[in-house]
From TrEMBL:
The keyword 4Fe-4S does not apply. It comes from the Bacteria. It comes from Salegentibacter salegens. This is 2-dehydropantoate 2-reductase. Residues 178-299 form the Ketopantoate reductase C-terminal domain. GO terms for cellular component: cytoplasm. Catalyzes the NADPH-dependent reduction of ketopantoate into pantoic acid. GO terms for molecular function: 2-dehydropantoate 2-reductase activity. Belongs to the ketopantoate reductase family. Pathway: Cofactor biosynthesis; (R)-pantothenate biosynthesis; (R)-pantoate from 3-methyl-2-oxobutanoate: step 2/2. It is an enzyme of class 1 (oxidoreductase). GO terms for biological process: pantothenate biosynthetic process. Keywords: NADP, Oxidoreductase, Pantothenate biosynthesis.
Amino acid sequence: MKILIFGIGGVGGYFGGKLAQAGVDVTMIARGKHLEEIRSNGLEIESINGSFNVKPQLVTDNLAEVHTPNLVILGVKSWQIPEVAGQLKSIISAGTMVLPLQNGANNVEILLEILPKRNVLAGLCHIVSFVERPGKIKHVSFEPRITFGEIDNSNSERIQQLKSVFDKAGISTFNPENIQLETWKKFLFIATISGLAGLTRVSIDRIRESEYLFDLLKKTAQEIKLVANAKGIPLAEEHLEKAFEIIENQPPGTTASTQRDIMAGRPSELKNFNGFIVKEAKKLGIATPVNKMIYECLLPMEMEARKS
């Protein structure tokens, strides 16, 4: 199987590295100094499960050099999906699978606006990893897992084939009965913490220590559940409880990736998280005052980051 990893950040770098280590034909799309370092010295993965270095079959910033892949794993940010999907149209075939692993609730819908339905899978992942320096990915938390499936939740032959490839690479996978519910469960957790953490600029444990902020966190989550339910997603109280168990268990100093982007003045997934909830709530006639407050307070900074 030929696999293209588009975006060698914490997610694409880790899973792409694992696939390459297993001998899979992997091509990586990277940029700038990150690209140069991987070309020269390979991709270094420092992981809580063991560190390694790999050299992919090809690493490039030019899609014209890439042969038609059987699978594309999207390791870019949610807000980058439209541009990347447009670029992929030139190299994919009818049989190419495109698997988004971004945080966000509507990545599949965004892809379907640009790519044929036959090409699009639904997916997400669980991992805390990041680019520590050019050429190096650091995995610091969570047992890495990819959750994926067909949009219609059918257990197709290509889903089984893909699972075999991930198994060979030692990547834990989950093919759920309802991929949409799994997407929203992850979205509930990440969107709940990201915006408020970006606004307060403190780690999750500091938010937990504040009765006022922790209450805002709970209200953020309840609003997300309201929107999900109105869209037909069976997000339940038990899923909120599980999300907050995870929040409660985050070690001191833990921050979310979107929060780190906001604090560093980089473009973030704000519009795909709290902004998405505000937008959908307006369509559905639902009040989401906490998400709106968080979004509107962060939006001016987001707009400045996008300009630069």
